[in-house]
């Protein structure tokens, strides 16, 4: 075992878009020494859903790693386009939304320019002694172990594919998550039938990708528990709910109030791009011109309750409950893709410092307004693990540069990156001077 005797200002666990953006924004801040570790061999964002012509759901200015903090940064998406000879082509394309594949290439381009991002390095343990965090890191290829020391940590391990607990996916070989879709696409086509569970953007993309195959006899089924196949809400006043002004308001509410509000906001974070819904409908309309039929089934209000092997070899029986009618029915499926979203799982490597972390009663992180979860409220920062305290926008790429500005300003004790005080035109909640005096 080796020891790096350098005391770093901050060490990041995980290198997804959020910690990558933090690494890029920290690069010019010379008084901060930082290292970031990831156990994967290279940056690769959602490789299982890199479908042709799919885009991010927000404009490039927001999903860019750095521009909302520093539009002049050399790590901006526009500079990436300039340096790779694609800026004018992007302009002529006349489209605000980045291709998902190009976003991945852009992030890889940023990684190549940074010296503070270490891939193939797995954080296996953390400890705390003499005012410093002790991080044990193993190289995944050589097995070599090194201990690092840091004043602070930032957790950016992201969310993991979620499978409902009643589904024993390990024993159901033709039941996969959307995150694995491309790896199984050819097998699905050979099977000749697919049933999709869930109604978010990923489900819609898989449905649209396979819709042309129904001309060749492919059967496509799409079920969701939601009451409709609803669009992502992108109206301008609604988008102000992603501002820090709304985050401040949301954070000020009780845990019970926040939970109730989150349960009503699915259309703000889990909906389908309206343009994709239109494309799906228009494609089905065109395919049925002249009385043609397509082997497609779309059903909302259907809650999946069980998946089990069917009597027919290689098929499954899916049990549903029609939510409105409270009627049960079954469906035969040859292949199932679960568009059941993602959940945050606490990294096992944090066990050694769990006594220094603030948790909610349900076991989630109790994040403070400054995105810290440690008992001193200044040492352990989280990225995309604060939905319950900061709201639906926590996993949104457009929040990354803003949250990273907060973190950097907190670390340095100065305003390295300017945070606009007022973004929203609307007000949230009752202002202090407006509070009515109670009269008895």
TrEMBL record:
Chain segments annotated as transmembrane: none
InterPro entries: FAD/NAD-bd_sf, Lys/Orn_oxygenase
Cofactor(s) essential for the protein: FAD
GO molecular function: monooxygenase activity
Key words, A-Z: FAD, Flavoprotein, Monooxygenase, NADP, Oxidoreductase
Pathway(s) served: Siderophore biosynthesis
Cited Gene3D superfamilies: FAD/NAD(P)-binding domain (3.50.50.60)
Family listed: Belongs to the lysine N(6)-hydroxylase/L-ornithine N(5)-oxygenase family.
Record-given protein name: SidA/IucD/PvdA family monooxygenase
């Amino acid at each position: 075992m080796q020891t790096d005797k350098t005391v770093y200002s901050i060490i990041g666990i995980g290198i997804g878009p959020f910690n990558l953006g933090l690494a890029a924004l920290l690069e010019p801040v010379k008084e901060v020494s930082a290292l970031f570790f990831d156990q994967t061999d290279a940056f690769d964002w959602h490789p299982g859903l890199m479908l042709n012509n799919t885009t991010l759901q927000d404009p490039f200015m927001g999903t860019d790693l750095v521009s909302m903090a520093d539009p002049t940064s050399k790590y901006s998406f526009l500079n990436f386009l300039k340096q790779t000879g694609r800026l004018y082509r992007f302009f002529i394309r006349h489209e605000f939304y980045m291709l998902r594949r190009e976003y991945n290439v852009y992030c890889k381009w940023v990684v190549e320019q940074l010296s503070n991002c270490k891939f193939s390095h797995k954080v296996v343990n953390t400890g705390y002694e003499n005012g410093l965090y002790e991080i044990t890191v193993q190289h995944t290829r050589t097995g070599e172990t090194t201990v690092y020391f840091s004043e602070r940590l930032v957790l950016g391990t992201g969310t993991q594919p979620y499978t409902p607990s009643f589904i024993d996916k390990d024993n159901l070989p033709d039941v996969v998550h959307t995150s694995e879709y491309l790896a199984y696409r050819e097998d699905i086509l050979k099977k000749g039938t697919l049933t999709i569970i869930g109604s978010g953007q990923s489900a819609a993309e898989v449905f649209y990708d396979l819709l042309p195959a129904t001309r060749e006899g492919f059967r496509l089924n799409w079920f969701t528990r939601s009451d409709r196949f609803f669009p992502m809400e992108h109206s301008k006043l609604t988008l102000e709910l992603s501002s820090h002004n709304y985050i401040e308001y949301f954070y000020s509410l009780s845990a019970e109030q926040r939970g109730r509000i989150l349960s009503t906001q699915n259309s703000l974070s889990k909906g389908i791009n309206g343009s994709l819904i239109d494309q799906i409908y228009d494609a089905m309309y065109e395919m049925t011109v002249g009385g043609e039929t397509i082997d497609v089934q779309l059903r909302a209000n259907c809650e999946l309750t069980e998946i089990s092997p069917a009597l027919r070899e290689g098929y499954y029986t899916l049990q549903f409950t029609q939510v409105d009618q409270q009627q049960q029915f079954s469906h035969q499926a040859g292949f199932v893709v679960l568009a059941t979203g993602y959940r945050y799982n606490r990294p096992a490597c944090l066990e050694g410092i769990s006594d220094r972390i603030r948790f909610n009663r349900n076991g989630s992180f109790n994040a403070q307004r400054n995105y810290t979860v440690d008992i001193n409220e200044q040492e352990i920062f989280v990225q995309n693990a604060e939905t319950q305290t900061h709201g639906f926008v926590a996993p949104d790429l457009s929040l990354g540069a803003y949250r990273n500005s907060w973190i950097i300003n907190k670390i340095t004790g100065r305003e390295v990156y300017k945070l606009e005080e007022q973004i929203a035109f609307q007000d949230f909640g009752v202002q202090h001077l407006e509070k009515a005096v109670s009269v008895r």
